[in-house]
Amino acid sequence: MDFTFTDEQRMFRDTIYRYCKEEVAPLCEAADREGEFSMEVWKKLGSMGLLGLPFPEEYGGSGADFTTCCLAGEAMGHAGLDGGHTLALGAHTYLCGANIMEHGTEEQKKKYLPGLATGEDIGCMGLTEPGSGSDAAALATTAVKKGDKYILNGSKTFITNAPLAKVFVIFATLDKSKRHKGITTFIVDAGTPGLSTGKPMHKMGCKCSTTSEVFMEDCEVPAENILGGEGAGWRIALGGVEWDRSTLLSPFLGGGMFMIENCARYANERRAFGKTIGEFQSIQNRIADMRVFLEAARLAVYRVAASKDNGVMLNPLLASVNKMYVGDKGFEMCSAAVDLFGGYGYIHEYPVERGMRDAKLGQLGGGTSDIMRMIVARFMMM
Amino acid sequence: MIDYELTNEQKDLQGRMVAFCRAEIAPAAAELDAAAPDKVPEMLRARFRKLAGAGYFDLLLKADFVSQCVAGEELAKACPATFLAAMSSGTAFGMAIQCFGSQAQKTRYLPGIAAGEFIGALACTEADAGSDLSGMVTKAEKKGDGWVLTGSKDLVTNAPVADAFLVLAWTDREAGLDKGLSLFVVEKGASGLAVGETVETMGLRGAPTAGISLTGCAVSADALVGEAGGGYALLGRITEWIKISLSSMSVGLGVACMEVSTGHGKGKKAFGKPIGLFEGVGAKLAVMFTLNDLGRMMTLRAAWSTDHQETEAPILTASAKLFTSESINKIADLAMQVHGGHGYVKGAAVERLYRDARFAELAYGTSEMQRAFIARDSLNRYKPA
């Protein structure tokens, strides 16, 4: 048992934090207001090696372990990066890149990872469909083998990064009657005939990440682009959960730190009835609750990372626990931060407003909190 | 390198405690709760001897809070009242003597504490002094080589069974909390010491509670623990240990609530299926699991931090105490709801657990006090220059 990060990990986190605070975060506020993905932000993240952090060095990455990847996410959130850009990074590096890293052939890794690592190519993953969200095994996109090709037909929705993506990791079924066992994953290059994306969607939060539908109409994919073999799709999707429940949640931790700092500073400055509002207990209570949330969430997220790094089988129950807690409680805390700022909390210029909109996604994306409770309950009733 | 798993040694300890508690402690938990106040001391003493045989008090006297939490959770799961009584003797009294006592005090008290034969208690709270001890009245006046204590203490866990009390008293009222308070050991039978009638508590009834009064109670110079005037600082340390212990108590209670609720969810059928398969009930089980699981992590984190003397240990401890004590109240409430009317009757395990749970948020620093402490730390950190 050990709760301390290595010196190297701490130094890395501090370096990323300082860089992001000075170089990246100042760009985020305007980008969020415009609801625009910032290529400048993206390039800066790429130049720091953050877009290919877990990839092996021979493919242009840094070979970072799970814990270090989470520390990077935490540092970015702490520095004040918006949830949109960190989500774009999550979809790109972990949902697209890490899946290729873990399940790809040597050729696939050589072909795709270096471009993803620099950020030159942007990646996305398509699992959700208009008719299947949390019940992912019900997906309807079909893949039919034809000679040395597969023909994909169907559509995906809410696909983060799709409007900008060069590399699409797409889940389809070879035989819908087989449910999970028919699901197969393909790498589809942008520009493949029959592949198109819809208009970018306007979202409540995480506005700087681009989101759209993906359409496949007789989209021909060469057989060598199959990821992990026929029928491996469900295993790939489940494996991705580990990344999802740790690295993708880690920016929320940093976001929590950012929020507490902002709230504490504001509470120390803002005065009412002759004293700082921080002297009122109801304000203190909010700050204390944020702090306690943060401690619990930190343990939840890093526990997944540590189990992966130390080769301990992850209890799937715990992944759901994390997602539910960080999602639900995180949103509640962001809402409390808005309360603490009063009317100012409702205004774009103050970072807590953005934080609350961004945090809502934590309860929805990658499996809703309702589904998480169902999963946990199912385990308990076994 | 972070590693949140228990070590093999800790897992072994856990396994031994599970087996011991299942055989020796859990079966009579309901009986202890329902016992008449005059029967409790004898029952408790028997349990203390068994706990001593299992090495539990030896563990409480060692500064290894992670292991204490691992074992404590199992004891609290089996019988929260026994846990509280054992903690009050082994940690609040025993560990205090171990860390701050003189050699003579250690020799006199610790073998008995470890053997479960000698029972200790901590007496700080008064009618007008709880979280804010400045309202305390009890004082100790120097007389010759010794001291004379006058005052009274409220809500002293273990008082009806205690062989000795660790009593907080003013030695110099003018010097204020930081320098004016001192800790004394007052043994049962000391002239001027009287133990009041057992107070009937809502829950944790197996940890008997009473007030004590000190009327010109003379103790020798040897009764002083640590330095005169150093009592507040020592009490701060003792309270830290207790908060960690209480956190593990909440987690153990949580497991007990979950076990009975999951059992009920599987066994009770409605509309043709086990009620746990309905989403409304299932979601409650899931929330119980989540809060308890994260509470355990926070407790271990605080314990580890204290073991390793990290500077953030007090904040992590307050956070764990706040989180687990609020969680167990939520968990017990959900457990009751899962049971429906069957949980509301005397004799139902969940009825007892529900009453026991309420203690956690009140004792050794209310949730209000924990929040104030935690918030102050954040506010101070970001004070304008």
What can you see in these coordinates?
The complex is a heterodimer of chains A (382) and B (385). In chain A, 51% of the residues lie in helices and 15% in strands. Chain A has 11 helices and 10 strands. A 4-stranded mixed sheet of chain A has the order 1-4-5-8, with helices on one face. In chain A, β9 and β10 form a beta hairpin. In chain A, α8 packs antiparallel against α9. Chain B has 3 domains: 112 residues, Butyryl-Coa Dehydrogenase, subunit A, domain 1 (Orthogonal Bundle); 111 residues, Butyryl-CoA Dehydrogenase, subunit A, domain 2 (Beta Barrel), CATH 2.40.110; 149 residues, Butyryl-CoA Dehydrogenase, subunit A, domain 3 (Up-down Bundle), CATH 1.20.140. Chain B contains 13 helices and 10 strands. In chain B, the strands form 3 sheets. Chain B has a 4-stranded mixed sheet with strand order 1-4-5-8. The two termini of chain B are 35 Å apart. Classes of the chains: A alpha+beta (382), B alpha+beta (385). Chains A and B meet through α7, α8, α9 and α11 of A and α9, α10, α11 and α13 of B.
Shape annotation of chain B = globular
CATH class of the largest domain in chain A: Mainly Alpha
Strand order of the largest sheet of chain A: 1-4-5-8
Whole-number count of domains of chain B: 3
Low-pLDDT ranges of chain A: none
Q: Which strand-content bin applies to the residues of chain A?
A: 5-15%
Query: What is the element string of chain A, with H for helices and E for strands?
Result: HHHHHEEEEEEEEHHEEHHHH
Instruction: Report the mean per-residue pLDDT of chain A as an integer.
Output: 95
Indicate the structural class of chain B. alpha+beta
Helix content, binned percent of chain B: 55-70%
